[in-house]
Amino acid sequence: MTTALTADIIDLLSGLTPGDELARLRDLRAQARENAQLSFVALLEPENPGQFSLAERYAVALFVAQLHGFADAEAFYADVLGDEAPALVDLLTGPDGLAAHAAASGPSGSYREPGLHEESTAARAWTPDEADTAALGERLAAALAHAHLLVIRPREASPAALGALVDAGWSADDIVSLSQLIAFLTFQLRAAWGLRAVAGSAPGGAAAPADPALPVVASGESSAGQVSVAASALITEYPDLSRPEAFTQQGLGWVPWLAPVAEADLAADQLDALVDPARAKMPYFRLLARDPAALRARTLTDLDIFFNVTGGVGRAERELAATAASRHNGCVFCASVHSAAATRESGRRDDVQRLLDEGVGADLGSDSWNAIVSASVALTNTPLSFGETDVRGLRDAGLGDAEIIDVVNGAAFFNWANRLMLSLGEPELPAKRVEQ
């Protein structure tokens, strides 16, 4: 599709044109704009898609857009999928389409951490039924089930969920690309929707009705199954891992469920994708290096959103948005990193800790911080519902449009980051704290 190859997709989905004031403000983060588009190219228009076909990529994108309730994104991805596999469009869309039966609200589900079990919420697990699996094929059926998990129940991701992909024929490299695709889409859709809201053109959002046909996972339980013997060749579990009890500002480690690329085996394009050579020591980035083009674009998007402070909101407020999204999604690792950064940038340790301890409804002692947390949480909800009230709250707290776009980008990006961290591995306590 020519439009997909040439247009800035976030501009397209948000309705921005080159002369718009919000388009000018987006240009303040030119590296983020460019690399969000390059992420689209890497994940949805790769030159060599390999076994992870374009039709599979577009079908996942359409399904994720449907779960978010973003009609223009649904139309866009249905269009590109129709060029590759029109039968899949018919299967996914319409009042009796597969996505209609998968509709649910998130983030929901059970926490891994014992100290957070009381915050667990009933979740609706979904997989295609036998007839739909036959129509989709086992690979795509497993990919859509995984997409539903990551979009709606990200904190319930598990080694068994990756094992289900392995059993359906997904390689380790393609699992990383699939994970990046799903997670990227949760950023892209929120960034575009948020721009619409700032422009005053976001549709009214509504919570998806619960579908009684979907099995409910009760609060405090998990839908995770067992890793098959065959999948265990690729999946690593850690039965004796020292796990954190709850959210914390203290540093945590992270262990991967899929094998990262060994440091000595990193190819030139993978080393380049790390951007910072020190990241070659980090298993998380070496795992993402299995798809180097996606990793490089993601990293450069991240750096511009969080470290380019020209004409926008402060570093502390961006880290606060990241922390709020992570707290709401249930990503204890991301929350630890970015709550510590929010404290470092602001000096407001007690306020940041209150967000971690009491949750996203905590009073943080200032109108601007409360508004940023509230907006970040609203943007993190699925289906999308961030709108006029949230933007007005930010403006009433003194933020201008450039600052609001930074908050939107910060929260949106951490929907991407949270889903990768939650679905490809898990946090651990550093050895020195275990010994204490």
TrEMBL record:
Carboxymuconolactone decarboxylase-like domain boundaries: 292-359
Keywords: Oxidoreductase, Peroxidase
Organism: Leucobacter komagatae
PANTHER family from the UniProt entry: CARBOXYMUCONOLACTONE DECARBOXYLASE-LIKE DOMAIN-CONTAINING PROTEIN (PTHR35446:SF2), SI:CH211-175M2.5 (PTHR35446)
Name of this chain's protein: CMD domain protein/alkylhydroperoxidase domain protein
Pfam annotation, one family: CMD
Record-linked SUPFAM superfamilies: AhpD-like
Keyword Protein transport tagged: no
Gene Ontology terms, MF aspect: peroxiredoxin activity
Domain of life assignment: Bacteria
